[in-house]
């Protein structure tokens, strides 16, 4: 069981809560394990946004519902959080931000601090976030010098006066925070930063696709997928990535296919609605056997749904994307390391088998910050598979097995022909029925090769289990922490990283269990349904959530106990 402290900062868009998160996570990571996630409304100004930062003495990557310390930064920052407040919660904020009726019933500790006044004394409300950062750093006894250095780096382009004013705001907050009595019950680990990197899921995927040789991205902006487009754009010069903001998602994936045809390693990043528009191009990838990689960043649907919240609702769309039958690969990272490794491997698999590969994430995974331990990438996945063509080159040579050698224009003496119609071995159009059957079976038989080259699943918890939990993607952290902290007996947790195609021998995990429970962030249990369809696995119970929120550790614990009665 880990010791942890949950801080929540509640205010509105435009108050700089994201800056508080950025500063605190980075400096806390020098001494403690840390994880942060946000609940953001779909608006530029106003509304109510919250950021949760968890501090712990061991690895964490999950959201907790109960709040230990709550910062109120405006007069409506308490409204959505009352159910998360308990008798041990400490609320910090301006007295007038809390109504009398609440205070009369509140059994926790309220402390009156006017951060706005401190900010105005320095120079204005713009310094509120720096004051709060300083206060939190002071009460956590964080390194003052490192904090001030981060402020210098953040505002280096703003001039000396802005830096000096922010330093003053920080110091005023820091000194006040030192008077706040807090016992963390955790020992600092000064060398922690040497072994871990602070990042979020977007950066993990970004590093992974760069490791996979990505040198082209074409996408149309759509939350929460746009952050990957921005990440690759920010690093485009250093890593040689061509970045194109397409006019729509249809054009984006067709550009990606064109780039692969010409020899690039390309990706498109999108969310559910944008992926719907890409499905015709997915089928084009299927019949032309042109590799492509798509990052599908899920959010609640249908239609616009909740554009800034999270859900795992697009798995079935990904499995059946496009028209007609063709092989594809679907990967889903559950940790930041998974994001890096699967990002790299997606390009390897797409290139090797000449199929579309979909990397599935969600808002919670992409926008949450945490620590990733250092590791070395497997350079076996650096291999590329383009061949030099001869004069009589056949792009779809049936004598070479399911995967024909892939040439690109200008690399050799051959003519590289592809077409969206059915085709002969040389790529020219045909309506010959016999050829159609041969070409179709050639493409479909790649699935057997892909299954043999699978991405391995992870079994956590008890290996000699009677009850098996199965999940995927961002639910991993909360389920793992719940099992580590609770007393559930012989329970194992199988988290899948390759969702399609599924190996038949995965059934051995399920055959061993007396009871199988699927935990998913969607309304129908899409992985559970896929397991039934592909492997004839019967799921006994589904624990589902589709409010737009991630699972909390407490919620999984209570719902598991209910199922296991």
Helix content range:
25-40%
**Shape, per Cα inertia axes:** globular
Q: Supply the number of structural domains.
A: 4
User: How does the major sheet shape up?
Assistant: 7 strands, mixed
CATH topology of the largest domain: Pyruvate-ferredoxin Oxidoreductase, domain 3
Architecture overview:
- With 565 residues, this protein is of the alpha/beta class.
- Helix 5 (144-154) packs antiparallel against helix 6.
- Helix content is 37%, strand content 22%.
- The strands form five sheets. It has a seven-stranded mixed sheet with strand order 9-8-10-11-13-12-20, sandwiched between helices. It has a six-stranded mixed sheet with strand order 2-3-1-4-5-6, covered by helices on one side.
- The protein folds into four domains: 4-190, Pyruvate-ferredoxin oxidoreductase, PFOR, domain III (Pyruvate-ferredoxin Oxidoreductase, domain 3); 198-382, Thiamin diphosphate (ThDP)-binding fold, Pyr/PP domains (Rossmann fold, 3-Layer(aba) Sandwich), CATH 3.40.50.970; 386-451, no CATH class; 458-563, Rossmann fold (3-Layer(aba) Sandwich).
